[in-house]
Amino acid sequence: ARPALLSLPRPCHRHEGSPAEMTVLVPAWSPNSSLLLLLLLLSPCLRGTPDCYFSHNPISSNFNLRIKKLTDYLLKDYPVTVAINLQDEKYCKALWSLFLAQRWMEQLKTVAGAEMQGLLEAVNTEIHFVRSCAFQPLPECLRFVQTNISHLLQDTCSQLLILKPCMGKACQNFSRCLEVQCQPDSSTLLPPRSPVALEGTELPEPPSSQLLLLLLLLPLTLVLLAAAWGLRWQRARRRTALRPGVPLTSHP
């Protein structure tokens, strides 16, 4: 395509040359330009960090004071829910717990008064960094139990204490944590035990046929024992009856 000519004035500069010298070349629009613009819009730099990466530490140094201030103001028995079967992976579990707690902070702000909203927002600011992670939808295997708000805030403080020393250092990239995982169900998966422990604690169960045979032989055994005891008693009584008496002798 032939480039179009566009005359652009140069501000704050006086040019004494001919008008032809003041022209610049502007390329005509092409489909390649649309493709380039689309690639720029989809680039990671423009659309954020979907891989949950923290180049700096987003946790402040006085987060515990903000949590304590909210705890002292709230009703201790306000009901909330917490997940009890998150996979026990040190840093991922902390991040997942904060993600669930941050959802509660947003929900409580919608029903709180003006002063309470300020305290909730102060705590929410400390854990809002989890929203920069593109978490996948929560799995159906998560189990929630009801507890009070003070326990939730105490757990939030504990998880921040776990993450703060390594944020922006040892644990910058949390890409492996984007999928919330549950612990294996204890009802379907038994804890592993060593073969030695199995040999020392488990006894083989008798088959059903052997058990039935034992039940049939037990009454017969009792009858035989009773018959043997009765026969022995009769023999002893017969010996006593046939025993000769002591003969009487007369002296001259």
UniProtKB/TrEMBL annotation:
It is found in: Cell membrane; Secreted. Residues 1-48 form the signal peptide. It is a single-pass type I membrane protein. GO terms for cellular component: cell surface; extracellular space; plasma membrane. Keywords: Cell membrane, Cytokine, Disulfide bond, Glycoprotein, Membrane, Secreted, Signal, Transmembrane, Transmembrane helix. Pfam families: Flt3_lig. The keyword Cell membrane applies. One of its GO terms (biological process) is dendritic cell differentiation. It comes from the Eukaryota. Gene3D superfamilies: 1.20.1250.10. GO terms for molecular function: cytokine activity; receptor tyrosine kinase binding. InterPro entries: 4_helix_cytokine-like_core, Flt3_lig. The chain crosses the membrane at residues 211-231. The keyword Protease does not apply. PANTHER family: FMS-RELATED TYROSINE KINASE 3 LIGAND, SL CYTOKINE. This is Fms-related tyrosine kinase 3 ligand. It comes from Peromyscus maniculatus bairdii.
